[in-house]
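Dear H.,

Thanks for agreeing to be a second pair of eyes. The structure we're designing against is below in token form, covering all 844 positions.
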């Protein structure tokens, strides 16, 4: 590799031809980049600077070209922009608009910098997609310019800027002549790709797809570059316009079964493609790019697939793309037949819409769809098709990945303020789907609204007039109905009348021109039959719309029955309920290990990871971080209660206390530190062990815990701010920090038969715990007199934790009718405990 500092004008003043190869991105300098360049040129003259550094130009001799033909590896944006500027200067001089003191300047620019002096060949040959726009700048008739091209727009900017005469045209040329570049010419044995990656060039940053394209094409001979670009890469970019980075991420998600970070697409692709045949790889990418295009532009699909993809596109949920691409590939290959793909896509829509209605957080949904196709294919059981297995998988999801039940949907449509809580695009989708159910002609409500022909209307208005209050049963009743129903689905519709009439009486809204009575929308049919609009009508319309929603997006029952095995095998990246299951063994890095308990499994995996890199856990053991992975590791066994730890190595102890779910979660956090994917570990476990004494499964309990905490937080937050900004969870344990912080917490817990409130000293430093506990215990009489109930005091001399608690026994948690009694106990004693402890802790 040879590199020299050189004036850019000297690089152009030669007989060399510069070819922009097909793998280079399109010319992309925006107006702001050109403005910055022009400002730098003016500044160079005004401040009389002898040079201005303009980055690097990296090139290599074209072995198939003639003498002096160079392929530009890096710097095409800069050399193209300067050439555009020179054409603007040349055309202004040629047209006689401005005159140079150098009478030879016009010919010098044309014959030395822009064209070959002898055969008049244009010296710069842009990539194929920019050639026409660039060559048009040389035309005698500038009316032929490609107006939409970035090249043309930047030319016009330079042209008009020169005519402002902030400097003379000779001064501008002088500034151009002071631009300095590093001229790097690669030699035969140089690795162009490696050099390209290591350059720290100025200008417009490359996208991840730019880097991938360069990686795939740069190492090929020039004629192969052109063939592969035309046959493959051009098609990939055509099918993924302005979304190639996103497509590549989805493509890698399918192939790697994990989701690469946007910033790591290129590095992940290099590893994936390292041993692949490039043409085979590109053919596969073109195939998936077509599927991606069909998802983004569903009008290119056919029949019912077009209809359902159009609906999914309106949901604008990109996390489903990898899965839908795999489904389309299965359909194209014949693995999935036509009626199956329609069913699959409808199930997908139902799953998404039910979650939207119920406000289920989308967090982690990308991981559901990342492995969903693989999860379906590997199901073993009775002979059913893909559709039944898909239903089974989705219905088995729990927590944030769950398929909401009919009860959840009904509750949310009845109680949720959709107008306020739901994204407008989702609300429009909901209304449009309700309107178009069973319609022969589909009404495109989204376009009608965007064109101003329809608007979302509150039937009972947002501001109540005296007339409305009277119709609703008087001021007090009216305010109750208004507060309860205003923003709910039952009170929302679509109308064509002017919004200035929104506060009119119901009679006027119904009977005015374009009112409910004249509306052709099915959504307004029931409204048009009503003589008044009050609670009774709202309840009825809510029932009608809810039943219609459940018809459009029904719940499913799967006929698939999984094979019953002595041991079920799952990978750690699967969403599986492990409650009441025993573990038999796990496989990691191709080796199977037998274990008897989940504690042994946790310790064994962490031990194997430690063997890979001893520094990671060593650093954590000595760390003062408050992260879960750091707090579960200690350099001393004294940090944990007896029996709650395992020795991993000398000076490294691991806490193994906790339920199965928390152990799995902790393992996954450690795996990420060692760059190991959860899918690299498989476990063999028993079928769920059902207790005849307690036949409640973990999903049911989790659902009940979430529902209980949800309603309790509403009540407790009206009495104390201890649990403010906390969200309900699916476990039986809830904590909130005290004024001391540092794991000195208030807590609430509940099980099937008892509930507890209290205060815990649970810092990693045992001595801190005992010191604070002893201080609190010194106020024992004061605290017990305030509470008025027996208090359990537990110093825990052999444990790390110390606590005090108040307990209510013999409850029946699964009976919701007992919750008011439980609420009263937990809220009352939490408030009392806070009131007595806060001044004590303030003095600590």
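And this is the sequence the design step returned. I haven't edited it by hand at all.
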């Amino acid at each position: 590799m040879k590199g020299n500092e050189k004036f850019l004008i000297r690089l152009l003043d030669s007989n060399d031809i510069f070819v922009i190869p097909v793998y280079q991105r399109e010319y992309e300098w925006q107006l702001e980049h050109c403005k910055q360049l022009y400002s730098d040129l003016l500044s160079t003259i005004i401040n009389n600077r002898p040079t201005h550094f303009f980055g690097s130009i990296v090139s290599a001799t074209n072995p198939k070209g003639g003498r002096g033909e160079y392929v530009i590896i890096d710097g095409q944006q800069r050399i193209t922009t300067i050439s555009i500027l020179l054409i603007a200067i040349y055309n202004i001089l040629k047209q006689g608009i401005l005159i140079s003191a150098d009478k030879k300047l016009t010919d010098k620019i044309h014959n030395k910098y822009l064209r070959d002096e002898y055969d008049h060949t244009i010296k710069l040959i842009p990539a194929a997609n920019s050639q026409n726009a660039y060559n048009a700048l040389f035309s005698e008739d500038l009316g032929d310019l490609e107006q939409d091209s970035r090249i043309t727009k930047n030319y016009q900017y330079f042209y008009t800027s020169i005519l402002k005469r902030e400097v003379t045209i000779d001064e501008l040329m002088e500034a151009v002549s002071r631009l300095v570049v590093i001229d790097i010419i690669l030699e035969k044995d140089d690795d162009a790709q490696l050099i390209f990656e290591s350059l720290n060039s100025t200008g417009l940053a490359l996208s991840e797809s730019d880097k991938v394209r360069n990686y795939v094409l740069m190492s090929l001979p020039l004629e192969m570059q052109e063939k592969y670009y035309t046959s493959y890469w051009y098609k990939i970019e055509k099918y993924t316009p302005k979304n190639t980075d996103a497509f590549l991420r989805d493509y890698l998600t399918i192939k790697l079964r994990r989701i690469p970070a946007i910033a790591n697409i290129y590095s992940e692709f290099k590893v994936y493609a390292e041993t692949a045949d490039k043409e085979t790889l590109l053919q596969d990418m073109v195939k998936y790019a077509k599927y991606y295009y069909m998802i983004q532009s569903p009008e290119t699909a056919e029949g019912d697939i077009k209809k359902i993809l159009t609906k999914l596109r309106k949901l604008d949920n990109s996390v489903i793309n990898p899965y839908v691409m795999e489904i389309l590939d299965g359909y194209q290959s014949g693995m999935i037949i036509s009626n199956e793909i329609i069913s699959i896509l409808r199930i997908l829509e139902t799953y998404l819409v039910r979650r939207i209605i119920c406000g289920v957080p989308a967090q982690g949904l990308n991981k559901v769809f990342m492995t969903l196709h693989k999860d379906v294919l590997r199901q073993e059981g009775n002979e059913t098709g893909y559709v039944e297995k898909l239903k089974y998988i989705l219905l088995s999801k729990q927590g944030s990945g769950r398929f909401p039940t009919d009860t959840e949907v009904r509750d949310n449509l009845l109680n949720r303020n959709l107008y306020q809580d739901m994204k407008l695009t989702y609300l429009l989708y909901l209304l449009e789907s309700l309107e178009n159910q069973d319609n022969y002609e589909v009404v495109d409500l989204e376009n009608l609204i965007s064109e101003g022909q329809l608007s979302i209307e509150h039937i009972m208005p947002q501001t109540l007039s005296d007339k409305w209050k009277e119709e609703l049963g008087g001021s007090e009743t009216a305010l109750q109905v208004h507060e309860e129903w205003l923003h709910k689905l039952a009170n929302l519709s679509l109308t064509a009348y002017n919004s200035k009439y929104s506060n009119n009486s119901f009679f006027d809204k119904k009977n005015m021109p374009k009112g409910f009575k004249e509306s052709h929308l099915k959504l307004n049919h029931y409204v048009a039959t009503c003589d008044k609009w009050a609670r009774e009508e709202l309840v009825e319309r809510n029932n009608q719309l809810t039943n219609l929603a459940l018809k459009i997006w029904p719940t499913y029952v799967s006929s698939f029955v999984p094979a019953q095995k002595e041991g079920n095998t799952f990978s750690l990246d699967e969403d599986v309920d492990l409650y009441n299951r025993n573990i038999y063994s796990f496989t990691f890095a191709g080796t199977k290990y037998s274990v008897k308990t989940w504690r042994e499994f946790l310790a064994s995996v962490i031990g194997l990871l430690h063997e890979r890199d001893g520094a990671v856990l060593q650093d954590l053991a000595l760390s003062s971080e408050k992260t879960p992975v750091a707090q579960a590791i200690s350099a001393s066994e004294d940090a944990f209660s007896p029996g709650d730890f395992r020795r991993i190595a000398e000076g490294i102890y691991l806490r193994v206390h906790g339920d199965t779910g928390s152990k799995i979660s902790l393992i996954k956090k450690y795996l990420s530190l060692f760059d190991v994917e959860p899918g690299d570990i498989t476990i063999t476990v028993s079928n769920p062990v059902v207790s005849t004494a307690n036949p409640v499964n973990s999903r049911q309990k989790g659902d009940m815990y979430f529902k209980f905490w949800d309603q309790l937080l509403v009540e407790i937050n009206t009495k104390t701010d201890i649990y403010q900004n906390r969200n309900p969870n699916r476990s039986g344990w809830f904590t909130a920090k005290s004024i001391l912080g540092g794991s000195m917490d208030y807590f609430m817990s509940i099980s099937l038969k008892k509930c507890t409130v209290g205060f815990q000293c649970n810092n990693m430093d045992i001595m801190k715990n005992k010191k604070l506990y002893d201080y609190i215990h010194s106020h024992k009489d004061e605290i017990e007199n305030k509470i008025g109930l027996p208090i359990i005091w537990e110093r825990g001399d052999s444990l790390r934790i110390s606590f005090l608690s108040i307990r209510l026994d013999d409850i029946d948690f699964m009976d919701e009718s007992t919750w008011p009694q439980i609420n009263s106990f937990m809220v009352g004693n939490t408030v009392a405990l806070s009131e007595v402890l806060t001044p004590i802790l303030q003095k600590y």
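Two observations from my side: Confidence is low (pLDDT under 50) at residues 690-695. The chain is about 50% helix and 10% strand.

Warmly,
E.
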